[in-house]
Amino acid sequence: MNKALPWIVGAAMIALPFVYSAPYPMHLMIVVLIWSFAYTSWSVMGRFGLVSLGHGGFMGVGAYGTALLWNHLGLTPWIGIPISMVMAVALALVVAYPCSRFRITGHYFALVTLALSAIVLQVATASRDLTGGSLGYTPERVQGGGNILAFQFESKISWYFVALGFWALGLLIRWWVDRSMIAYALEAIAEDEDAAGAAGVNVTAEKLKITALSAAMTAAAGGVYCQYQMFISPDTVSGISVSLQMVFAAVVGGIYVLPGPTVGAIITILLAEGLRIFFGTGALGYDNLVYGTLLVVFIIFLPQGLVGAAWNKLTGARQTA
Q1: How many domains is the chain partitioned into structurally?
Q2: Do residues 16 and 33 touch, judged by C-beta distance below 8 A?
Q3: 83 and 269 in contact (C-beta within 8 Å)?
Q4: At what angle do helices 77-101 and 203-229 cross, to 10 degrees?
Q5: What is the pLDDT of residues 21-72, one digit of tens each?
Q6: Is 266 exposed, middle or buried (0-12, 13-18, 19+ CB in 10 A)?
Q7: CA-CA distance, 31 to 9, in Å (whole number)?
Q8: Residue 313: which domain range?
Q9: pLDDT, tens digit, for every residue of 229-243?
Q10: Mean pLDDT score of the chain, rounded to an integer?
Q11: Residues forming a β-bridge with 137
């Protein structure tokens, strides 16, 4: 049954838009899938103790890079997104390499990445002639509203399958990482860097690999989100609030289990939408307050997350039976 479950879920998700495709629920599902991909991207790195608070910066690079390349150079997002991913990787390595070389770990590493996220936010806000600043930025729409080359689709069903594909790719990458030699090396580094290095693990190289992979995936999520929403602003795709949202979703859902970030995405999106519907503009910023409060609660009382706790209880029940 365990082996068949992913195929059953996959088949159900493929069939879903043909059974039920109301615009607003379909929009929510698309947004959940895109953010699930972003949260999974963070968990690829975060599950090994490399807690980054700078992934909002990488998402911002992906979103703004894709839009700017399209608007100013006419470069299709099919090329713009990979270029933005390379830019995000370069930015990640600029920060991660000295941190690894000088053994900046734990809380200090998180603070360094937090500064990175804040810098990207400030650059996007201050460069108003290029990015629109706090007023936001809109990729140019093609005539007719839909064009594959422009990565623009009129149908919600088309966007659903695009988002579903990226979500599945994120899970596949996370699954591969968890079963690769990289995971064993990073788990050893998380336990004891000195012992791992003495055993022959190239600590710096392994950290840089997983950081680069996570940054590239997050930038891709930013590019896809930009193309779907056709509007971005510094607060929605970059900065500290986005980074906090990623950490919250991954921790609450379960950072050590594959579907954890997806469950976290469902919670965060529904929470944000619920606050918006019930409180309107008066609830601006409330979601971040709730994220921060719940994050502390989960770290203290339920560090394995909702899915992780459910899985542990299920396997514990099976073992005792």
Answers
A1: 1
A2: no
A3: no
A4: 150
A5: 889 999 999 999 999 999 999 999 999 999 999 999 999 999 999 999 999 9
A6: middle
A7: 18
A8: 5-320
A9: 999 999 889 888 899
A10: 89
A11: 232
Select from 38, 20, 29, 25 the least CA-distant residue to 242.
38
The per-residue DSSP string of 63-131 comes to: HHHHHHHHHHH---HHHHHHHHHHHHHHHHHHHHHHHHHTT--HHHHHHHHHHHHHHHHHHHHH-HHHH
- CATH, residue 197: 1.10.3470
The answer to pTM > 0.70 is yes
* Residues ≥6 apart with Cβ < 8 Å to 316: none
pLDDT in tens, 300-317: 888 888 888 887 777 664
> Based on the number of CB atoms within 10 Å of its own CB, is 157 exposed (0-12), middle (13-18) or buried (19 or more)?
middle
- The DSSP line for 201-253 is --HHHHHHHHHHHHHHHHHHHHHHHHHHHS-B-HHHHSSHHHHHHHHHHHHHH
* Site of tokens 């991207």: 41
Which residues are CB-contacts of 91 (< 8 A; sequence separation ≥ 6)?
57, 58, 61, 116, 120, 215
Q: Which two tokens stand for residue 27?
A: 């929009």
First to last CA, the chain: 18
Residue type, 44: V
SS3 285: coil
- Token digits of residue 85: 């991913």
Integer angstrom CA distances of residue 63 from 134, 225, 318: 15, 7, 45
